[in-house]
Design goal:
This protein is of the alpha/beta class and about 240 residues long. The protein is about 35% helix and about 25% strand.
C-alpha cells in the first residue's frame, strides 16, 4: 500500500472557503456560505434597522481567528454600543472594537478609496458597506445613467483588488417593488444584477416583530436557492427559529 503523504498547512487551498465564520451554525450554512474570498454579496430587505444589525453581526464575525473587518457607512449606522450588546463580555467587546475599522462614505468614489485602504491591512477578512441605498442617494439622481456608470466602475475596481487579497465585500441594500409586476428587487437596477456574485433577502414577518426569513436568492457556490432560515434579529444578536428546505 502506498504511504499517504502528509499535507502541509500552507498547501491547503482555502480560496473557496468562506472568509467569515458566522454563528449560529444554521446562519453559517446559509448566509455564511456566500461570504467567499474575492467576491461581492448583497443582503437586502425592507427594514433598515434589521439590515444594520445583521451588518454589525457580520463585522463582529470578521474579527474572529485574529482577523479584522471594516464597516463603511454614511456616518450614522455604526454603533459601538450595539457591538458591546452583541458581544456581551466587556473586555472581549473592547478587543473586537479595536479590530473593526470604521469609515464614512459619501459617494461611490469614497467607497473605493476606503476599500483600497482597508486592503492594505493584511488582517482584513470582510468589508461591510451599510448601506448601498444610502450611498446611491448621495452619488447622483435616481435612475440616471451617470449614477449607474459610477457604481459599475467602482464595483469592478473594488472586485479586482479584493480578488488579489481574498477579501469579501458585503453590501446591505433596501428593496423596491415594481409598480407593474409587483416584483421585489434591490435598489441599483441592472448594475447590481451583473456586479454581485450572491444575493440574499431578509423578508420581515410582520406578526413576529424583529423576526425575518433569510432567503438565498442567488449564489456562486451552489447553495440551493430554496434554502432559508427564520431568524430573530435583536440588539443581542441573531437567533434562528427554524430552518426550511
Amino acid at each position: 500500500m502506498k504511504e499517504a503523504r502528509r499535507v502541509r498547512l500552507e498547501e491547503i487551498d482555502d480560496h473557496d472557503s468562506p472568509v467569515v465564520p458566522l454563528r449560529p451554525l444554521v446562519l453559517d450554512r446559509t448566509l455564511g456560505r456566500l461570504l467567499l474570498p474575492g467576491e461581492i454579496s448583497l443582503l437586502y430587505g425592507d427594514s433598515r434597522s434589521v439590515l444594520t444589525i445583521m451588518a454589525h453581526w457580520i463585522a463582529i464575525a470578521g474579527t474572529r481567528r485574529g482577523r479584522a473587518s471594516v464597516y463603511l457607512d454614511t456616518g450614522k449606522n455604526f454603533s459601538p454600543n450595539l457591538v458591546r450588546s452583541m458581544v456581551g463580555d466587556s473586555d472581549r467587546a473592547t478587543r473586537v472594537l479595536r479590530r473593526i475599522g470604521v469609515g464614512k462614505v459619501l459617494c461611490a468614489q469614497d467607497f473605493e478609496q476606503h476599500a483600497l485602504r482597508s486592503l492594505a491591512m493584511r488582517e482584513t477578512s470582510v468589508i461591510v458597506l451599510d448601506s448601498l441605498a444610502a450611498l446611491l442617494s448621495l452619488t447622483g439622481s435616481p435612475g440616471t445613467v451617470e449614477r449607474q456608470r459610477a457604481l459599475f466602475r467602482v464595483l469592478e475596481r473594488v472586485r479586482e483588488h479584493i480578488a488579489e487579497r481574498h477579501v469579501h465585500v458585503l453590501m446591505t441594500d433596501r428593496c423596491t417593488t415594481s409598480w407593474s409586476s409587483e416584483a421585489v428587487s434591490p435598489l441599483g437596477g441592472l448594475v447590481l444584477a451583473h456586479s454581485v456574485d450572491s444575493v440574499a433577502r431578509l423578508i420581515p414577518l410582520l406578526s413576529a416583530g424583529q423576526t425575518a426569513r433569510l432567503v438565498v436568492e442567488r449564489s456562486s457556490c451552489g447553495v440551493n436557492s430554496t434554502d432559508s432560515v427564520v431568524v430573530r434579529v435583536t440588539r443581542r444578536g441573531i437567533r434562528p427559529l427554524h430552518r426550511e428546505r
